[in-house]
Specification:
- The protein is an all-alpha fold and 187 residues long.
- It is built from ten helices and no strands.
- Helix 1 crosses helix 4 (49-60), helix 6 (78-95) crosses helix 9 and helix 8 (111-135) crosses helix 9.
Length: 187
């Protein structure tokens, strides 16, 4: 296994601290200590705490790959496709839980984070719309509306269960909730 670079150690330490303590409360001294480097090294790589924060968000706040969202849909029913998309979207949020926590806590305080978050969710909605249209299960207008409902439903469930309640939702429960979501929207 490849040993993390100094920059990667700093990014990992900052992500951990920012998600736990919040961006404002975490200090560069704490980031350096957690990363096992001196504080000056943090500034050599990132110049400011703000640039460190921005790099974390830019590195991790990306929509899922289209291939990840649009896989194994041939021969499936509408309900199975919708349920699968919802489940893969939830898993995407789950895989970036610390970043999602940071964004959630900072979006209303920081205009740059709010703008990055808005772009991130817009990109996901566009991706979902394209995936749904490619399957041919819904017309354009329905696909756009469905994509928004899927995104908001999966994200709301993720925030409630994983961030607010602090519990880890397992694969079985994710699949069950994907099916429930498909049932709720009557597909």
């Amino acid at each position: 296994m490849k040993k993390p670079t100094t920059k990667e150690k700093i990014l990992q330490a900052a992500t951990e601290l920012f998600s736990y303590k919040g961006y404002t409360s975490a200090t560069t001294r704490e980031v350096a200590k957690e990363a096992g480097v001196c504080e000056l090294t943090v500034f050599r790589y990132f110049l400011t705490k703000e640039k460190l924060f921005t790099e974390i968000l830019e590195s991790y706040l990306k929509p899922p790959y289209a291939e990840e969202m649009y896989k194994q849909t041939d021969g499936l029913s509408k309900r199975e496709i919708i349920s699968g998309l919802w489940s893969r979207l939830f898993k995407h949020f789950q895989s970036s839980k610390k970043i999602q926590t940071i964004v959630l806590s900072q979006s209303y305080k920081n205009k740059e984070v709010a703008q990055m978050s808005k772009c991130y969710f817009t990109d996901i909605e566009t991706l979902l719309t394209d995936c749904i249209k490619k399957t041919g299960i819904l017309e354009h207008t329905e696909a756009v509306n469905f994509a928004a409902a899927t995104l908001h439903g999966a994200y709301a469930f993720f925030v409630l269960e994983e961030i607010i309640k602090g519990r880890s939702v397992d694969d079985t429960e994710i699949k069950q909730n994907g099916k429930l979501f498909a049932d709720i929207i009557n597909v």
